Structures are given as structure tokens and as C-alpha cells.
């Protein structure tokens, strides 16, 4: 039987037009709908990320840098920077808008791209060997409620620069801002010609989805930025894991320090984003000779001192949960907010709550992530350094010292072995805010990578050519 193809096509077109004219069919609904990296299930997110990473492998290094530059430019647009900073504070109820602006900006400006992926070359009579940083594949990244957007920004830049794609599992209390940011970045990357879904996540973050991600066979590396529990969990999966865990950064102030500057630096560092950064000053050990001066200048620069022992205990009971940790409802809250709950009214110029306590006080030994700063008086700098070593708990995260004594600075640096050691500056200088160096919000002390960059998320591979390209 012969079929008139032309006639069939004509009849089909007529039928479609009749259906459309009668509003029985809306063909617009059949157009592909972009999800911009947001998926219903974690499995779908990982599968899409896997496809994207295979496409990224075929991209040039120039393309990778273009994608990095696109992420940076997108974040640095004034309206985008302000939006994600405001959303982060409003949704999580943690930190300060003004400081989120700084953190998001510095994450975009000072996280390195492909320039971090240096090449090693060895030549000799037997030829040429190259060692290069190469992708792991699909990376699963867990982000915290304290630094939700900052972590997504710096991780995305570093991981994509390294040739990887990333699936984020955000904290549920930062769901909306995380989804907004991932969508924003994927839209910009699409316009730059990047593969779809270089950055992915799920519509409903949860512990269950985090577990699915960690166990998924196509996830080649796990990165956890958070507390000890989640870091230990990713390290026990059997996969390559990078853990950015807790800290309890001590500050030592000795008699050689510029006390007035030290006071300003400590108040500013402790109060930065209401003390939620893991690098922020958490307790002070000051030599007796200068301790009173230090407290005096701190009070002149935004510190409110509590001297009454009963009131200090009342504050401890207020902000501590039944397990001794910080109450979530007080994490990242301002000093005026916390004092108000104690029945004390102060103006917004108050940044930090200080009190003098003993070295074994709970505020000294427990990382609280709120602008409460205990001060311990010591007989000399050696005792202060020893106390700082105990209070840091071997996290080897961050420590700060205000001193002009090079020998004592060296002693503290060697004893505490912290990933970041800041001298005579606020703690945030250690992540490039007012200090030299790159920025990250994934500081991997437990697994040893330190301040992570693109190379942290790469494998080192060797390429060998024998009997050639030795031109010396």
C-alpha cells in the first residue's frame, strides 16, 4: 500500500492547529523546563552532575577559567551580593548582614581558579615526566548553616577550576538561600556556554539526602564543612574525604603587645559575623601585667563586661544546652540580643560580652559561636601559651597571638600547630580579610589540606614520555 507522505504531514499539521485553536493543547508545556541544578531527588542530582562532569572533561582550561570568572562576576554584582547576604541572615537568623557582604565578596574575589593548578616537570636522559592536578569527578559537599553561601561560592569556584562538578547538601535551615544561589550561578554559567548542572542540589535538603549522597557510587570525593559529627561521618565512608571541622581559637596577649590595638583587633575579630566563623576568637589568655589595660581598652571599643559571678552563671545557663553545647537559638546572635535576654539593655555599639574567668571555665573550653569572650589572667606568657594549647583541644585549627616577642610567637606556633596562626591582627586576617593570601570557608584541619583551593579537590597524575623532550 503506497502512503502519500506529503498528505500525511499536511493532515497532521492541520490536526495540531485545530487542537491549538480550540485551546485543547498547550504546546508550550512540552518545551524543556530548565531546573538550573535543583532536583527532586539526590539520585537525580548526582546523575545529572555525573553527565556534566564528563562534558567538563572535554572543556579547555580557558573554558574552565571562564566558568570560574562567571561565578565570581555573578556574585560580585551588587544586587546579587546584597540579596544572598540578606537572605542568609533572614533565613538562618545567624550573623550580621554587613559581615555576610564581606564574606561573600571575599569568597568571590580571593578564591583562586586554574592558576592554582601548577604543573611539575622532570627531565633527564630518560625523557620527560609531567605531574598535574586532575579532577576527581563528582564531589559531594556538605555545607553549614553558619556560612551557607560563602561555602557554596568558594567550593564551586575551586571544584570547577579543578575540573570537577559538585552536588551540595546544604543545611536544611539554609535551604532557600542555597537554592537561590545555585540557581543564580547555573543561569549565569549557561549564558557563558557551560554544561548544565555543574553545580547541583536538591529541593529538600535533609539528613536522608545527605546519606544518599555520601553512599552514591558516582560520588568520588566528599567534602564536609561543619561540626565534628559530620566530619567524622564523611571520613568513615571509605571515600576520599576532606573534613573542615570545629575549632576553639585561643588568643594570647603578652606584655610586649600593642595593647590598645590588640583590644580593637580582638573585639573586631570576635564579633565578626557574631562569632560564627570557626576562625574567630573564642577565648583570651592575657598576661597579668597587661590584663587590666586590655579589658579597659576592649570596653572602650565595644565590649560589655560582666563581673558578677552569679550573672556569669546565669548567662552560661541561658546559652548552653543540656549537653553542654551552645543552644542553637543563640548561635550567631548579637551581643545586645543576648544581653537583652539577661534583662540588660545596651545599644548596638556593644559588640562583645566579656568576663574574667578561670582557665577551666566552660566558656573557655567550649566553642560557643556567639560573641561571648572569656578572659583568663595568667602569670606570664608561657602559662598563657600552655593554657591556649589546652583550650584549643588539639583541633589544630586557628590561634591568634598579640606580641612583639618573636621567640614567644614561635613557641606558640610550634606548640599549637594550627592551620592558621594570626599574629597581631584580627582572626579574619587569616582568611584574606585584611591579610594576604587566598580565601576559603572550608578549612581542613582534620584531614590536613588546610585552606582548601582548587588543587585540594584534585588527584595528582603522572604522564611520562621516554627518550624525548629533554632538550638541555
TrEMBL record:
<feature type="domain" description="Aldehyde dehydrogenase">
    <location>
        <begin position="353"/>
        <end position="427"/>
    </location>
</feature>
<dbReference type="InterPro" id="IPR016163">
    <property type="entry name" value="Ald_DH_C"/>
</dbReference>
<keyword id="KW-0560">Oxidoreductase</keyword>
<feature type="domain" description="Aldehyde dehydrogenase">
    <location>
        <begin position="40"/>
        <end position="297"/>
    </location>
</feature>
<dbReference type="InterPro" id="IPR015590">
    <property type="entry name" value="Aldehyde_DH_dom"/>
</dbReference>
<dbReference type="InterPro" id="IPR016162">
    <property type="entry name" value="Ald_DH_N"/>
</dbReference>
<protein>
    <submittedName>
        <fullName>Aldehyde dehydrogenase EutE</fullName>
    </submittedName>
</protein>
<dbReference type="Pfam" id="PF00171">
    <property type="entry name" value="Aldedh"/>
</dbReference>
<dbReference type="InterPro" id="IPR016161">
    <property type="entry name" value="Ald_DH/histidinol_DH"/>
</dbReference>
<keyword id="KW-0520">NAD</keyword>
<dbReference type="InterPro" id="IPR012408">
    <property type="entry name" value="Acetald_propionald_DH-rel"/>
</dbReference>
<dbReference type="GO" id="GO:0008774">
    <property type="term" value="F:acetaldehyde dehydrogenase (acetylating) activity"/>
</dbReference>
Amino acid at each position: 500500500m503506497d502512503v502519500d507522505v506529503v498528505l500525511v504531514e499536511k493532515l497532521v499539521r492541520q490536526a495540531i492547529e485545530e487542537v491549538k485553536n480550540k485551546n485543547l493543547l498547550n504546546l508550550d508545556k512540552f518545551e524543556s523546563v530548565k531546573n538550573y541544578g535543583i532536583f527532586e531527588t539526590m539520585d537525580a542530582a548526582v546523575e545529572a552532575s555525573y553527565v556534566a562532569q564528563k562534558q567538563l572533561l572535554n572543556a579547555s582550561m580557558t573554558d574552565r577559567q571562564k566558568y570560574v570568572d562567571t561565578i565570581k562576576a555573578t556574585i560580585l554584582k551588587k544586587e546579587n551580593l546584597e540579596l544572598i547576604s540578606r537572605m542568609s541572615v533572614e533565613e538562618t537568623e545567624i550573623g550580621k548582614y554587613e559581615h555576610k557582604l564581606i564574606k561573600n565578596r571575599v569568597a568571590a574575589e580571593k578564591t583562586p581558579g586554574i592558576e592554582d593548578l601548577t604543573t611539575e616537570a622532570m627531565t633527564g636522559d630518560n625523557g620527560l615526566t609531567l605531574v598535574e592536578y586532575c579532577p576527581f569527578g563528582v564531589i559531594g559537599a556538605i555545607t553549614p548553616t553558619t556560612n551557607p553561601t560563602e561555602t557554596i561560592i568558594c567550593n564551586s569556584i575551586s571544584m570547577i577550576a579543578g575540573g570537577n562538578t559538585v552536588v551540595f547538601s546544604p543545611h536544611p535551615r539554609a535551604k532557600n538561600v542555597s537554592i537561590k544561589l545555585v540557581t543564580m550561578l547555573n543561569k549565569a554559567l549557561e549564558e557563558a556556554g557551560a554544561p548544565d548542572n555543574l553545580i547541583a542540589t536538591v529541593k529538600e535538603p535533609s539528613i536522608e539526602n545527605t546519606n544518599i549522597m555520601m553512599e552514591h557510587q558516582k560520588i568520588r570525593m566528599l567534602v564536609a564543612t561543619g561540626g565534628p559529627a559530620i566530619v567524622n561521618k564523611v571520613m568513615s565512608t571509605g571515600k576520599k574525604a576532606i573534613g573542615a571541622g570545629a575549632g576553639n581559637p585561643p588568643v594570647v596577649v603578652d606584655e610586649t603587645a600593642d595593647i590598645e590595638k590588640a583590644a580593637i583587633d580582638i573585639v573586631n575579630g570576635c564579633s565578626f559575623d557574631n562569632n560564627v566563623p570557626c576562625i574567630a576568637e573564642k577565648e583570651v589568655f592575657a598576661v597579668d601585667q597587661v590584663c587590666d589595660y586590655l579589658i579597659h581598652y576592649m570596653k572602650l571599643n565595644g565590649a560589655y563586661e560582666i563581673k558578677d559571678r552569679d550573672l556569669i552563671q546565669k548567662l552560661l545557663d541561658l546559652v548552653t544546652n543540656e549537653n553542654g553545647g551552645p543552644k542553637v537559638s543563640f548561635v550567631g546572635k548579637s551581643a545586645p540580643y543576648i544581653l537583652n535576654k539577661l534583662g540588660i539593655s545596651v545599644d548596638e555599639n556593644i559588640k562583645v560580652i566579656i568576663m574574667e574567668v578561670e582557665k577551666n571555665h566552660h566558656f573557655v573550653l567550649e566553642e560557643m559561636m556567639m560573641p561571648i569572650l572569656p578572659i583568663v589572667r595568667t602569670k606570664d606568657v608561657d602559662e598563657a601559651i600552655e593554657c591556649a594549647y589546652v583550650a584549643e583541644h588539639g583541633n589544630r585549627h586557628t590561634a591568634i597571638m598579640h606580641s612583639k616577642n618573636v621567640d614567644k610567637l614561635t613557641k606558640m606556633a610550634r606548640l599549637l600547630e594550627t592551620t592558621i596562626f594570626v599574629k597581631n591582627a584580627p582572626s579574619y586576617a587569616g582568611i584574606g580579610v585584611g591579610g594576604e593570601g587566598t580565601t576559603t570557608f572550608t578549612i581542613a584541619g582534620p584531614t590536613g589540606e588546610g585552606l582548601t583551593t582548587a588543587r585540594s579537590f584534585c588527584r595528582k597524575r603522572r604522564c611520562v614520555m621516554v627518550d624525548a623532550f629533554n632538550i638541555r
